[in-house]
Amino acid sequence: MDTQTKGIKAHLAAHMRDFGLLFALIAIMVFFQIVTGGTLMRPVNITNLFLQNSYVIIMALGMLIVIVSGHIDLSVGSVMGFVGALAAVLIVHYNMPVAVTVPICLIAGAAIGGAQGYFVAYWRIPSFIVTLAGMLVFRGLSLWLLEGQSVGPFPKSFQIISTGFVPELFPASWGEGLAMLFDARKFNVLSFVLGLAAAATVIRMGLKARKRDMDYGIESEPAGLFWARTLIVSAAIVFLMFKLSTFRGLPNVVVTMGVLIMIYAFVTERTVIGRRIYALGGNEKAAKLSGIKTERLTFLAFVNMGVLAALAGLVFAARLNTATPKAGFSLELDVIAAVFIGGASMSGGSGKIIGAVVGAFIMGVMNNGMSIMGIGIDYQQVIKGLVLLAAVFFDVYNKNKQG
Amino acid sequence: MALKGDIMTILLEMRDITKEFPGVKALDQVNLAVKGGEIHAICGENGAGKSTLMKVLSGVYPAGSYDGEIHFEGALAQFQGIRDSEDRGIIIIHQELALVPQLSIAENIFLGNETAKAGVINWYEANQRTSALLKKVGLKESPTTLIDSLGVGKQQLVEIAKALSKDVKLLILDEPTAALQEGDSRKLLDLMLELKAQGVTSIIISHKLGEVRYVADTVTVIRDGRSVSTLDAKAGLSEDQIVRDMVGRDMSDRYPARTRRAGEMLMEINGWNVWHPEHSERQVIKDIAFNVRAGEVVGIAGLMGSGRTELAMSIFGRSYGRGITGTVKLHGKEADVSRVDRAIKAGLAYVTEDRKSLGLILDETIRFNTTLANLEGVSKGGVLNANAETKVAEGYREALRTRTPSVFQKVGNLSGGNQQKVVLAKWLNTSPEVLILDEPTRGIDVGAKYEIYAIINELSAQGKGVVMISSEMPELLGMSDRIYVMNEGAFVGELSAEEANQERIMSLIVNE
C-alpha cells in the first residue's frame, strides 16, 4: 500500500500540469455551481456554455498548432468577424444559398490564412507583426463590408449551424418514458446515447493506450490514478449529456466541435504531419536538416488557422443571427489565453489539443459563472488576467523545480 | 593584479568538497590545491564533476549547500554567490561566452562595473582603460568595436580582458578552446603563459590533453566526482598517463583497429562551387572534387573557417549557400540532392557539427528524435505506429549502447556522448549509403569517443562510405583511410593514411 501511494504521488508530481488543469476545471465548476446556487449546471445554462464557447474552442484548435509551430496569430478575432460579415453580405444582400456561401467562406478563410502564412513562412517576417497587420486589415474590411451596420437576419438553414440540435432518432415513447423516469419535461434519447458512447470510447481508448504502454515497459500511471481520472472524465461527459438531454438535446455545434477535437487530437499526436509540427516548433533548424519542409509546414499551419477562424465566424454569426462590425473583437486574446492556460509553451514545440480545450473551458466557465453572479465586466477582466498569469506561473514554477 | 606569486604558497585550497544532489553524489571529497602563480589544469570525462566543482568554488552553490572547506589566500572563504567570489578576485570564463553581441567591447568590459559617477558613464575613461586591457591580451581592435563583428577567438580574448579589468587573482577558463581553431587556441594558450609570467594564477578545464601539456604546471584529474590524482606536469607528462587516470583503465589504443577495405565507387562530387548566402560575390567553396568508396572513411582536414561545414551542408540538400554548381554522383549516376528530403532519399546523411542547436530536439524523447528523419518508416498512410517507433528506438539504443533508462528520456538530459549516439541513430535509421560526420566527437569524453569510433568502423565494415570532418588532427589520422586537406574553400591536397601526419597536413595548409 505504501509503495502504491508513493507511486501515485510521484506520478502526480511528474504530471502536475495535466492533472492540475483537470482539477482546476473541476474546482472552478464546483465553485461556481455553489456560488450561483446551482444555476451553472442547469441544462439551459450548460447549453449556453457550449454555444458561447464553441467558437473559442474551434479557434483554439488551430491556435494550438500555430503556437506549437513557434508562432502566434493575432488576427483570428478580426478574421472571424470578417468571414461572418462576408457570409451575411453574400446571404442577405446577394441572396446566395447557404450551401454555396459556407464553402466560399471557408475558402476565404484558407486564403486569408495562406496570405499571412506566406509572409511568415517564406519571407520570415515575424508572425506577431504579420498577424498584427492582418488584425487591423480585416477589422477594417469587416467594417467596409458591413458599411458599419449590422446585417441580418439569416435564414433558418444558416442558423442551425449553431443553434440547431441533433434530431431524435429513437421512438418518441422512449423519450417520454425516460423523461417521466428522471422527472424531466422531455428527454432526447439520442443525445444521451451519444454521451454514453463517448464515455465508453474514452474508457476504451484509455485502456488501449495503457496496455500498449505496459507492453513496452513504459512507466504508466498507477492503476488507481488511471481509473480515477478516466472515470471522472467519462462521468462528467455522461453527466453533461444527461443534462443536455433533458433540455433540447445535443446542439449541432457541440457535435462539430467534438468531431474537430478528436480529429485534431489524432492529427497532432498520431500522424506524421503532427509529429513534424512539434519538431518544427521544438527546433526549426534541426527539423529542417532532418528533411522536414519547415516553410511549407508553417504555411499550412496558418492556412489551417484561417479555415478554423472562418468556421468560427460562421458559427458566431449563426448564433447571433446577425453579423456585426464588432464581432470577434479582442477574441484572439481569449483564444491565445486558452492555449497558454492549457499548457502550451510560448517558445513552441509543446502543448496539447486537449489542454487547449480544457483551457478554453476554464475561461468559458469563469466568464459564464461570473456573469451569472452579476460581477461587472471590469472585475471579470481582472480575474481572467490573473488566472492566465497564475496558470503560466504554475508552469514555470514546476519547470524550475524539476530542473 | 595579484602580487608576483611565490610559487610555493598555496593560493586556493578546496578540502574534502562533497556536493550532493537528490539521488546523486556529484562530488565526493574532492581535494584541489592551486599554488600561487601556476597554471593548474583540471581534467576529467564529461560528467566527472569539473563544472560542479567550479560552481562550488564560485559560489553558484553557496556555502552551506556543500560539505568541505574552501581556503582562499589562507583564509576560509564562504561565498554566497558569484558576486562574493568575484569581489575576492576569482573569475570564471565559461564555455558559453557571456558577452552582449550588440554592445561594444568597452561596454561589455565594464558592464555591471561601469566607470560612472552618479550614474553617468565616463566614456573617455572607459575607452582608455579598455584600450590598455586590449593591448594586454593582444587585441588590436578599437574599444568601440561591436562584439558582433568579432570571431569567437577574439571574443574569448575580450572575456579575458574583462576579467583583467576586475583585478583578477584566480582566472578560471572552462574549456576555453572548445570553439577555437588551432591558431586561435595557440594564441590563447600563449596569453595564459604570459599572464602567468605577470603573476596571474589560472585554472584551465580542458579535454584537449595536448593543450594541457602545453600550458599546465600541475594537473588534477577528476573521475566520477573524486579527485583521483594530482600530477606534476613540469617534469614532462604523457597524454596516456592523464587518459589512464581519467578513464580509470589503460587506453593504449585510443582508436579501435580497423581493417581497410575500399570497395566500389560510392559517391563522386565534381566541380562543386558555392557562394555565400548573403554576400553573393564571395565564393565559399571553390571547384571541389572528391570521392568516397564503399567501406572507406575519408577525412577532411582544415582549420575552422576553411569551409568544411559549408561544403558538407551545401551537398546535403543545399542547406548552405547559393548559386551552387557541380554534380553529385552516387553509384555512378547523378543524384538529386537539391533538397534535404531528396538528399536523404538519395542515400546521404549529415551529422551536424552542433548537435544541440542543429541535430536534436532537446525537449523531446530519444524515441522522437530517433525516428524524426524517417517517419515514413514507422507510419502507414501518414499515421504513426507507436509500437514500431519504440522498436526502432530500442533497437538503436541497444546497438549503439546508449546509456539511458529508457527511450522515453528527454535527450536534453543525456550526456554529450549519448546525445551524439541519438543523432547517429537518427541518421542510421534513414539507411544512408554515405554519412557525412561533422566533428562527430566534439565535446565528448574519451570513453564515449572510443565508442563513436567503433561505430564508425562498424559502419564502414557494412560497406557504407563515411566522410569525417574534424578539427582534431589525431582523430583524423587515427580513423581515416584517406585525408583531403582543405583551405580557404578549396582542397589543397590529398593524403593516404600512410603519407599523412600532422606536419604534412599543416604544411599543406600553410603553403597555400
TrEMBL record, chain A:
CDD domains: TM_PBP1_transp_AraH_like (cd06579)
Superkingdom as given in the UniProt entry: Bacteria
Native source organism of the sequence: Celeribacter baekdonensis
InterPro entries hit by this protein: ABC_transp_permease (IPR001851)
One MF term in the entry's GO annotations: transmembrane transporter activity
GO annotation, cellular component aspect: plasma membrane
Name the record gives this protein: Xylose transport system permease protein XylH
Function: Part of the binding-protein-dependent transport system for D-xylose. Probably responsible for the translocation of the substrate across the membrane.
UniProt keyword annotation of Transport present: yes
Membrane topology field: Multi-pass membrane protein
Broad class of where this protein is predominantly found: membrane
Record key words, sorted: Cell inner membrane, Cell membrane, Membrane, Sugar transport, Transmembrane, Transmembrane helix, Transport
TM helices/strands, residue ranges: 21-40, 46-67, 74-94, 100-121, 128-146, 187-205, 226-244, 250-267, 297-317, 353-373
Compartment(s): Cell membrane
Record-linked Pfam families: BPD_transp_2
TrEMBL record, chain B:
UniProt GO cellular component terms: plasma membrane
Domain ABC transporter positions: 12-249, 269-509
Matching Pfam families: ABC_tran (PF00005)
Keywords: ATP-binding, Cell membrane, Membrane, Nucleotide-binding, Repeat, Sugar transport, Translocase, Transport
Entry-linked CDD domains: ABC_Carb_Monos_I, ABC_Carb_Monos_II
An MF annotation (GO) of this entry: ATP binding
UniProt subcellular location: Cell membrane
The keyword Membrane is annotated on this UniProt entry: yes
Bilayer topology: Peripheral membrane protein
Name of the protein described by the UniProt record: Multiple monosaccharide ABC transporter ATP-binding protein
Provenance organism: Celeribacter baekdonensis
Phylogenetic lineage: Bacteria, Pseudomonadati, Pseudomonadota, Alphaproteobacteria, Rhodobacterales
